[in-house]
Specification:
Oligomer: single chain
Order of helices and strands: EEEEEEEHEEEHH
Structural class: alpha+beta
Largest sheet: 4 strands, mixed
Distance between the termini: 40 Å
Radius of gyration: 18 Å
Strand content: 35-45%
Length: 178
């Protein structure tokens, strides 16, 4: 493949979660074009399996969709240098009240490669302990639910679960561990 060269990157808007840039690029045919880039610091998600085999899920309102979604627990990194395994354990505790000693990386996804660099590492957590209180951020309202893998796969196939990290996490877990 011929070389593509970035000529300039301009910050268009700085947000709480993302920054929006416009890149001026020279493509192989010589044309100079503008490409959008959404810069994200990264995230971690966790497929949390209880002793009974059910997976912990969180139901929450998502403003971008204008409705509630059912997802695996997840959240953004506190900084680009935060280890994603630590973030996964933190998010599990904050969103569900459960804790675990360690997690295992089972997949990594980039959510929208055409214009966004958001990377989510997806972990498996077993040996969950101490279902206690959630520790939600001030802008979060999350209900915790538990489902069998078969129930979740059926929801995926019926397009009731549409969140990419959740679909990837559940199907990866089902394919590798069941």
């Amino acid at each position: 493949m011929e070389e593509i060269k970035r000529i300039k990157r301009e910050l268009v808007a700085k947000g709480a979660i993302i920054d929006y840039y416009q890149d001026t690029m020279q493509i192989p045919n010589g044309n100079v074009v503008k490409w959008d880039l959404i810069d994200h610091k990264g995230a971690a998600a966790v497929v949390a399996v209880r002793e009974d085999g059910k997976l912990l899920m969180v139901r929450q309102y998502r403003n971008a969709l204008g409705r509630e979604t059912l997802e695996i627990p997840a959240g953004g990194l506190n900084g680009r240098d935060e280890p994603t395994a630590e973030a996964a354990i933190r998010e599990l505790s904050e969103e569900t009240g459960y804790s675990c000693d360690k997690v295992e990386l089972i997949n990594t996804i980039y959510t929208t490669v055409a214009f966004c660099n958001e990377k989510i590492d997806i972990y498996l957590a077993r040996g969950l302990k101490n279902p206690g209180r959630q520790h939600l951020d001030e802008d979060e309202y999350v209900n915790v639910e538990a489902y069998t893998v078969d129930e979740l796969k059926q929801m995926i196939f019926e397009c009731k679960i549409q969140d990419s990290k959740t679909i990837c996490g559940i199907l990866t877990y089902a394919a590798r561990y069941l």
